[in-house]
């Protein structure tokens, strides 16, 4: 990803030259608007803390691990939140236009990295069973689609419409497909992904875990990911719009409270409507689930993410943020600045450390048991992994080094 900036030099210059714009507060102190909207990094950093913690579990309870089908568990929320926040970051990065060369390069790099990522995690390099779909591939689709759609609109209102169109299209697909299923209910044996993704990629090259018959990272799920990402873009452009007006009027970060709260409420209302609208035609409700990345799931999570961004905005984007807050937030912000590295790197690291050795031992369990403090194996192991990623990203942040495709 790019080094997304909330406001660039031109935005700040426009604000200073605007009629009636003031560079001082009511008390006469100089205002110093931050050129970067740090709340995005803060929320991404907190999401990555949860990612590392859940990924570090040597034994994952069923209620935390990915839901087997039509429900939502904590592990199901991490990647959709990552995608929603990526959409917000893309709004910042593409607010002035799209460079085709950069967009094509990023998409191709993400697709290639996705193949490598899947091969490493599976431990198989056999091309006849190489997994074509995956989280990085779905991310590549999101980046490409959102980049192209920025040629159509770069306003939050336009992106609200785009989000609605994606959500309605995906809901119609899921609800319409359910009509051919027994009882009108989507199952692993009867769902659009099980037919479409298998037809396009063949069963050997798609998702094989947790019960075959669907692909939570294939073409059908990509439509749901686009709902999440478009919602994030809408939030990003709204935040930029509010921030721009605030600079012109010398207003504080509180100006974003009502607009973002209203947008979060709209996402939640849309999730409710899309869930129950099919019942008006005698069909079953559209389920809230991650396995098919349903629109109600995507929009409800986007609503919660919007509120998190608002809280972060009020905390770290205001002028004169205190030293205590700056100090406490620094490691979280550093994690957020290198979100691509930490999110996928933590999965690769744990994938390698939990792979059995020839003697049957698991490296992660061996290390965790060896370094355990006062017998607290899991707590020590989780703490060490968090410390590793925080120290690494803090060092990279200090030297302004960020992983981007």
From TrEMBL:
Q: Name one GO molecular function term.
A: acyltransferase activity
Region Disordered: start and end of each range? 1-33
Superkingdom, taxonomy of origin:
Bacteria
Listed Pfam families = HGSNAT_cat
Q: Which UniProt keywords apply?
A: Acyltransferase, Membrane, Transferase, Transmembrane, Transmembrane helix
Question: Where do the coiled-coil regions begin and end?
Answer: none
Domain Heparan-alpha-glucosaminide N-acetyltransferase catalytic, which positions? 36-172
Which parts pass through the membrane?
40-58, 78-95, 107-127, 133-152, 159-178, 219-240, 252-277, 297-316, 328-353, 373-396
Q: Which InterPro entries match?
A: HGSNAT_cat
- Quote the PANTHER family the UniProt record gives: LD22376P (PTHR31061)
This one is known as: Putative acyltransferase
- Taxonomic source organism: Herbiconiux flava
The taxonomy runs: Bacteria, Bacillati, Actinomycetota, Actinomycetes, Micrococcales
